[in-house]
Amino acid sequence: MKSDAEIAREARLQPITEIAAGLGLEADDLHLYGRHIAKIDPAALPPAAARKGKLVLVTAISPTPAGEGKTTTTIGLGDALNRIGRKTVICLREPSLGPCFGLKGGAAGGGYAQIVPMERINLHFTGDFHAISAAHNLLAAMVDNHLYWGNELGLDSRRITWRRVVDMNDRALRNLVVGLGGPRNGVPREGGFDITVASEVMAAFCLAKDFADLEARLSRMIVGFRRDRSAVTAADLKTSGAMCALLADAFMPNLVQTIGGSPALVHGGPFANIAHGCNSVVATEAGLGLGDIVVTEAGFGADLGAEKFLDIKCRQAGLSPDCAVVVATVRALKMHGGVAKDALGQENVETLKAGLANLGRHIENVKKYGLPVVVAVNHFTSDTAAEFAAVRDFCRERFGVEAISCSHWAHGAAGAEDLAHAVAAVLDAGAAAFRPLYADGLPLLDKIRTVATEIYGAADIAIDARLKSEIADYEAAGFGELPVCIAKTQYSFSANPDLRGAPSGHVLPVREVRLAAGAGFLVVICGEINTMPGLPRVPAAEHIGIDSAGRIVGLS
Amino acid sequence: MKSDAEIAREARLQPITEIAAGLGLEADDLHLYGRHIAKIDPAALPPAAARKGKLVLVTAISPTPAGEGKTTTTIGLGDALNRIGRKTVICLREPSLGPCFGLKGGAAGGGYAQIVPMERINLHFTGDFHAISAAHNLLAAMVDNHLYWGNELGLDSRRITWRRVVDMNDRALRNLVVGLGGPRNGVPREGGFDITVASEVMAAFCLAKDFADLEARLSRMIVGFRRDRSAVTAADLKTSGAMCALLADAFMPNLVQTIGGSPALVHGGPFANIAHGCNSVVATEAGLGLGDIVVTEAGFGADLGAEKFLDIKCRQAGLSPDCAVVVATVRALKMHGGVAKDALGQENVETLKAGLANLGRHIENVKKYGLPVVVAVNHFTSDTAAEFAAVRDFCRERFGVEAISCSHWAHGAAGAEDLAHAVAAVLDAGAAAFRPLYADGLPLLDKIRTVATEIYGAADIAIDARLKSEIADYEAAGFGELPVCIAKTQYSFSANPDLRGAPSGHVLPVREVRLAAGAGFLVVICGEINTMPGLPRVPAAEHIGIDSAGRIVGLS
Known about the structure:
Chains A, B: This is Formate--tetrahydrofolate ligase. Two copies of one chain form a homodimer. Chain A is an alpha/beta fold. Chain A folds into three domains: 4-126 and 250-429, P-loop containing nucleotide triphosphate hydrolases (Rossmann fold); 134-246, Domain 2, N(10)-formyltetrahydrofolate synthetase, CATH 3.30.1510.10; 444-526, Formyltetrahydrofolate synthetase, domain 3. Chain A is built from 18 helices and 26 strands. In chain A, helix 14 links the parallel strand 18 (373-378) and strand 19 (402-406). In chain A, helix 6 (128-148) packs across helix 7 and helix 12 packs across helix 13. The longest helix of chain A has 21 residues, at 128-148. At the A-B interface, helix 6, strand 9, helix 9 and strand 25 of A face helix 6, strand 9, helix 9 and strand 25 of B.
């Protein structure tokens, strides 16, 4: 079997100017980054009124170690829609260097459902993440420089919340003491680094409607608090302008292609726990202007990814999605039913049926937003006909929803053609009536409770008086209209990662809240959330290199 | 008077493909980064045997607060050589973000002697520095990850020498304690960040002859020592391959243009104190293959910049320069003579004559390498005819060297035409007979002493027994053939920055030595050297932003 890298290398790429021409863009509308990558000049993008495309969200059941294939399904569906004559643009997040060198590998799809050139997309791409890191870290340097020169703004050095970022898995940077070495080397205080995708700059970058909105969001970002608990912002430090200068090029959406020749906009990549986990609004809107259909994905399972896509991204950007595709695999459903990982190769319809509760909850949830659903069953060779039939019957009988088997990983566009027809039929029927889960005006605490009960199946939330008072302070300061961004384990509807299937009656424990004033949401942390991953015992980096022909090897 | 940014903005840029065509390069030889920047594919570069260009080094007197204009002279001379019909390529270093947001501003020249597009060159450019930072920091993450997983290689956590880097002025990161927060968050130890230009990866990147050489240099890099003082390298940590993958694109030279339309290769930018301070060898060699003349510069005054260019870069790369241009200004020479900064506007021939000793020493020094010298007197409006005549007569009478007044800052290529004719005449005469200052086989201590006495005018060096024994250990380990890279103040021939003019009889105090096994030199630290600058009280960042037309403003 060929590796992803081999398949990508054998693909015959079109010049990116030709991919752009297929979208009605001319060479002058592009800023080329080599032969196969371009940024699209904002002046070339259709105005808001001309954005007529339909929006399809690809989401998934709760992830298991068996894997689902959300990114490959997004790419395969996009390729297949183009194959059946629907002009489709795929919108994805940019990969982070951290997982590339760690455990998970890149994020450019796999098999015959990949975006290319995969090495460049997985490594530095167009430098967007580096630009975001630089903007974030400039603000951090300005904070410590402000302390150094006398702290005119009166920041409490114990209450500085703005950390630094690096696009790397580096656990030793999680908790630091900075500013050591005496008076000439700064003011000692506790600090730390997050991975770049966890930066609030990343989240704001991805949610900003236009450059003016980005500048406003950067200005509002809170770096810390005074002793009286009043906030100090990037604007107070006169740094948001320089951050904008650093982000000016990065903010233009990136155009690449799939190995099937579909256009793909790959732009932005916020964390899916402390941020909202979707590609940039500007790229999605560009896709809606340039294509008839946009296929996009959101991080993690639908309880986290789709919820945030719908309640944060679509709400803030005024987007109205037309269809949701929920990706499942027979293997993962069997794990939700209780099968151990090493027994996944054997047919087990009964346990699969138990695991369908997870899929069912996600379908129900997405329907609460007024969206029609198609289930994509990403095919593995070990799947049996009886197992697929159990999934199909469950979806049809319980929810009136079609479950379509697809094999884009092995067969590219042809393998997702049935799925494409099913999605196209839903779009043509026009049955979507999108509504967010809760109104802007609902109190913050009730927003958290609504997501917990309506989406997670929880009986209630648990939150102590100190956090309640913190939330009340944010409401008093005018942040009560913001949506909530809940960070919890992706492996379960509950806060307990070992609770597979569709648990209910549990209580969601709120451990911490953080105001992301620039991103425009309240982060609600429930359980252990790590914003700086570590490398494994044998990092992927050990096997990455350059071969004798000068090609990058070892990326997956 | 127009600002640098205004002049740059008004320049009519040619498509970079046209600039490349002037060098015989076709569109397929380029990897475009937008319309005005390209990387040159190594396959398109002339082979070593076909590199027939003449090499001109632009260096300077010891810098003063009055300024010299080495970069503008390099650009102006290149433009003027092209104007008089000599096919010339300019080779410069890439700017760092640190000074852009700090005090000094960018490094793309000034006035009518600039490289463009200045905003992009000064900000992220083609991402080379970000790639170098990522490669450097991946190795750092692998070091701490190795400690975390049990430290099989037996690194002494107190003797880890590999720090982290960021392309930012951020003094609070100079000295840190990393790995805090308990066993899950790493192993606590002292660490710190340098600015990216001070990375050994940067130095190796700039000295590597080809990609295989770069990989070998990365493999040799020492990250720290065991308790028995044996070294642990990047190869031991199996990280050099992944570092190469991160550097693959960055290693291709960047092509831009001057506002006069000359081709400029802007690639790499190592610190001029703990590293050698010149652009990449691959860019210089590319220029020598593509043009008839390459004009390049080295950091700081000739005692540091030219010495390292000649004894490190030319020695390692086998380059043989044909002419040196020493840049001086009447104002700076007056400061060397003792005039205070606020009295520089008044004619003062006598003090100027005293300051000429600094210029004279630099001319003598460069001649020791067998190079013919031309002095460029970078014109300021306050300079008087009598002052210029004093410089001209001094150079002619003492050294048989021509001093040429030039005004490229105000007048572009036309302002440096006389200088171009003088340099062309030197090149046509072919009198250069380059030889490095010392032989590879000279013991390391004698190499340090040779530079100190021959170039700095010192009577001797002062070095304690501990450092002598450290140097002996390096020689025993096989590093005795390396050149030395001396880090001392750029403001004086001595280690005392206040000693202007041409002091002699002083003693050079060696405070520390560091083996840069990958870069391929022994760093010899004499005096206070800061590898992570801080921001000033009012950083330039406060005035940088985006105007209503979407243009970046405030960069200088």
